[in-house]
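User: what does the whole thing look like in 3D?
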Amino acid sequence: MSIPASSRQSAPASVPRLSPRARRTLSSLGWGVLSIGLFAGIWEALWALGLVNPLLLPPPHMFLSDLGRTLTFFDHEARRIGSQGSGGAIAGLLTTIGWTSFRVIVGLGLGFVAGVGVGAMIHYVRLFRNLVQPLILLLAPISPVAWLPVAIFVFGVGDVPAIFLVFITVFFMIVLATVSQISSVPKNYLHVARIMGATERQTFWRVILPAILPSLFMTLRLNLFAAWMVVLIAESVGVGIGLGQITSMARATFNAKLVFFTMVIIGVLGFSFDWALRKVQQKMLWWIQPGQGGI
Amino acid sequence: MARPALSLRNVGKVWSPEGRQTVEALRDFSLDVEPGEFVVFLGPSGCGKSTLLYMIAGLEETTSGVIEQDGMVVTEPSAERGLIFQDASLFPWLTIADNVAFGLSVQGVLPQKRKEQAESILRSVGLSDMLDKKPDELSGGMRQRAACARALAMRPKVLMMDEPFAALDVQTRAKMQDFLLQIWQDSKASIILVTHSIDEAVSLADRVVVFTARPGRVKTIVPIDLPRPRMSRDPRYHEYRDMFADLLADEVDRAFAEQEAR
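Assistant: Here's the predicted 3D structure for the full assembly of 557 residues, as structure tokens:
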């Protein structure tokens, strides 16, 4: 009663009404900005106090401000390595990102499909299982990076060894996940399929595959970052253009600004890939509630 | 007399897991089920009643004896012998309508036709609002009704249920029993219901088959001579209930004694 009517009305009006969902998004965005801002701020402060050498660890404002020059290193047509690019600018940057992303996507896709296929064969074909499973168990723990020389011996220098390394990164994990998940499909699902008269093939495509798909997607997502790591390593040993090649070249020419700029790009890309894969996952696994099953 | 819908002759089952002692689950079990009859299997847990159900369904092989449906030996599963599980086992990646249409779809019924059939069956079980829902969005009782609809879509001659209401609360369970009598009368299928609830047996069955403790055998077969709907206030209902309680108590005692002797 003592509160004036005007202030009572103006209070809610000053805060825009947002749906709880929008508020959640906004809040997590805010925390994200704060988190990154804090990190950059400390870095900048250390530079301002003269505690870090800007030649070795240039703070964000330095490697982000000199964009025009940095971008000249991203070469959009040439497949050459050197301290000077052809000045590809934005188009060059996008081409480079495009090539690296292409290798990751193709490698992930092939690895996923082949992994599920081989996993299913191991489950269904006894001879195949006896012959292949021990080999898979032996090869799976080998770091994908160790395959790099093999990839170059066999495929030479080019796109294929990079794609191959990404493939290797996901392939074994998907095979192992497929084998273990198929055997843990609820027995009653299979009973229902048998009673309804489904053939083996129908049972696989309509019951087993959808039943194991959620955990296969989870496996794929967990190995996405590893795929990003190996593609950069493969590119750094020379497969033409790519982000890995840029970092390698930047290191060789002592271009710290370029190193950090590329790192930012790689970070943003890795994050976007995970986000995109999560969206695909939500679309394909429509029956799973968000917040469950790792979505 | 008409041929029985289902005929079990001297059926036995021995589990022999690798490296462990063999277990005799069922011995010398014989029973005829008439077309349209409602039979309840009642027995202590571990008496082999679910095993027998799986063998009738064709999901497990018999160790000895023969199971015939309409004079044909059962060798593999068939949609003519539908089986409903305690956990409903609907596929979470299909809508309720698609779950119900699953059997029709693997048998090659065209989409338009199976949609119509699924809808009409779901209407008959009172789930016409739930066509496009996910199984997760349904309550336990509704899921069990959808599972019934999925089995009924295949027009089974025999509908088997493995403790279908055990996971439901008491009120839902009573509703589901009414519902079950309704679909039994509509579908004219024989029903075999496995339970360890005496009340369920007395309120539903034409005949109750009481199992002995392991190895499961027919202890006795009791026809329930009460008109439907059955009232639990009816003194005769109580007589049946007391009788089954005594019969089961014997078997539970024996099962315990056997376990202690080991």
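In plain terms: The longest helix of chain A spans residues 89-124. Residues 104-284 of chain A form a domain with the MetI-like fold fold (CATH 1.10.3720.10).
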